[in-house]
Amino acid sequence: MSARGFLGLGSNVGDRRAELQAAVDLLPAHGVTVVRCSSTYDTDPVGDVLDQPSFLNACVEIQTDLDPIGLLDACKAVERERGRAHESSPDYVRHGPRAIDVDVLLLGDEPFEHPRLTLPHSQVTSRRFVLVPLLELDFDLATPDGASLADALAQLPLDEGVRREGVPLRATV
To answer: Of 47, 93, 158, 172, which is most buried, counting CB atoms within 10 Å of its CB?
Structure first.
């Protein structure tokens, strides 16, 4: 049965917009239909490595028959196809510069817990660079427990730089 979900995309290496679009274009080959894409947002780095180029972020609404782990595997496959170094690679730096990052944010209406994946994403309510493009797609979005994502955004400090950069990416349908 097809489920509605949302993915977060980010890039801060090379042609950032082209990297995001390439990820969107590769998702259908992995069983993921991209229904709609948000605008792109230039965002300040957050996390462990702040001394790096700004990111370009976007969110996409998807439909898929994949289960949560299957969707995670599809996202990781797209990252690998785009040349992203993963944890087992000597080039990997957690929260460091990367050509592409594809995160599963929400899938269906139920929470999900697994050693490899937690849904909703653990930072979906605490990162402005996720919430702004996500709410552009659906302002009424809530977590499976009913928490409003718009209310979560309203509670965040304004010091995390998120600037609209460009028009929405091209969806696959």
So the answer is: 172
